[in-house]
Amino acid sequence: MSRLVGNDRADVVSGYTVRDLFHRAFTVFADRVAVTDEHGSWTYSKIGELARQFAAALHQLGVRQGDRVAVLSEARPEYVVTYAALASLGASALTLNVRLHADELAYCIESGEPVALIYSGMLDNQIATLRDRAPVLASVRYWISFDGDYADLLAAAAPVPPPVSVRAEDLHNVLYTSGTTGRPKGAMISHGAAAIRGQRLAQWFNLTADDGFIGWLPLFHCAGDESLYATMMTGGKYATLRTADAEMMFRMIERDRLTWTLLLPGVLTDFLHHPNREQYDLSSFRFAIGYANMMPHIVQQLTAACGIDFSDAFGQTEVSYLLAHSLSHPGEMPSLRKLPTPLLNVRLVDDEMNDVAVGTPGECVVRGPTVMSGYLDDPAATEEAFRGGWLHTGDMLVRDEAGQLSVVDRKKYLIKSGGENIYPAEVEQVIARHDAVQEVCVFGAPDEYWGETVKAVVVTRPGADINGAELVAWCRQQLAGYKRPRYIQFMAAEDLPRSTTGKLLRHELAKKPPHPEERTE
Question: Does domain 414-518 have CATH number 3.40.50.2000?
Fold first, then answer.
C-alpha cells in the first residue's frame, strides 16, 4: 500500500484528499460544464459517473488500493476521468511524459512497477515498442487504450467497488522530472499536497466558477496537474487540448469563454504572432502565467495586444509551479522580481545551510504542505534533496531589501570561467532586453584558455536585423567583461529543442561544439 507517513486517528478526521476534492466537485457543481475538448463537453456529474464506472472496471480487473497505474497520454477528458477513478480506489498514477524516449519510458515503468498501463491511441507506436520489452515490464498486467478497450471496460463495469480509506499522506500521483541531467526522477505527490496545490492556485488567482483553463499543458506536468485541481475546486471549466495549437486555443477561448492558461516560450510567441488571432473573440481571456525573464519584451507585447495580466511564476515539480510570483498588467514591462506565495517557507542558503545576506545569491530551499514526499523508490536522491531538513530546489536566487526574489539561475548551470562564476540567467536577461531579441539561451562552452566560456543562442524578433558584434556591444554596457558571450549562434525559433512545456533544452544546445564563425572576438 502506498502510504507515506503517519497513521493516527487525527490524520483520518483532518486530512483532505484529491478524492474528497473530486467528490465535492461532482456533487456541488453537478450540472455545470467541467471538461471540454474540441469535440464537446462533459458536466461534473457526467465526469463523476464515468470515473465511478472506470474505478469499478479497474477494480474488476484487479487494481487495488496502494497499486500504481501508469498513464501515457496527451491531455484529454479521459485523463481527468482516470485521475478521479484512481483517487477513489486509493491507487496512484504514474504520469509518463509522452515525449520520453522508449528507454526512458521503460525505465520509469520498470522502476515504478505499475500493475496497469493506460495509454492514448496516438501513442500506439511507443506502446508497441514497450510491449516488446514485456519481460522487463513484468509488473504490467493490463494494457488499456483510451481509444480501444476503455469504452468496452466502462460498458461492462461491475457495481461500484466498496469505499476505501484514503489519507492525506497517501500517494496520489508521481510526476516525473524532465531528466535533463540523467534518468527521470519520479516526484511523489501526496493527496494532501496535490489538494493544497490546487487550493493555493484557486485563491491566489481569485478563480471562480466563471473561469476556464486552456489546458494545452499535459496532465503529466505539474502546471496542467495543479490547474486541474484548482478548476475542480472552483467549479470552472477545464479545456483539454491534445496539442499546443494556437488557433485551437483561440477557438476554444471563444467557444467556452475560457479565461486563463500558461503561455510558455514557444507557445507564447505562436499565440502572440498567429495571423488569425484577431479574428476570434478573446475578450474572456484575463491572465496568463509563464516565465517573463526569458522574453520580457514579448510578454509586454502579449499583455498589450490581448489586454491581459501576466503572472511571472517561479516553481518546480517537487514544490509547485507557484513558489514565487509577480504580476504585470497590460503593456507593462515585467519587473522579474517575485514575492514568495502563501503556505511555503522559503530560505536562500549557502552550501552549509546558512542564510545568505541580502543581495547575495543563495540556493532556494523550501518547506511547506505542497512539497513532494520524496522521489519514487530512490532513497539516495530523496536524502540528497532533503538534506538539512529542507527541500533543495537547485535554483539560485537573490533577495532584495523588500523581500522580493530574483532568479539567478539553476545551480547546476553555473559557468566557471577563469575562476569566476557566471550564471547564464544573468546574461540571458541582459540579452533578452534588446529590442531585436525574441528569445535567448546561454550556456557554457569549452575554452582552452579559460576552461569554460559563455555561448548564447539567440532568436531574433520577426523583421529585426542584428549581428553578434552588436549584441556583444550591448552586453558590454551592462555586464562585466568576463560575462559577455564569446560565441553567439543565431537560430530560428522552430529549430530550438524544447520540452513538452516549451522550455528550451539547454543541455541539448550545449552538446554541439561552438563553431569558429560564432566567435565574437
Answer: no
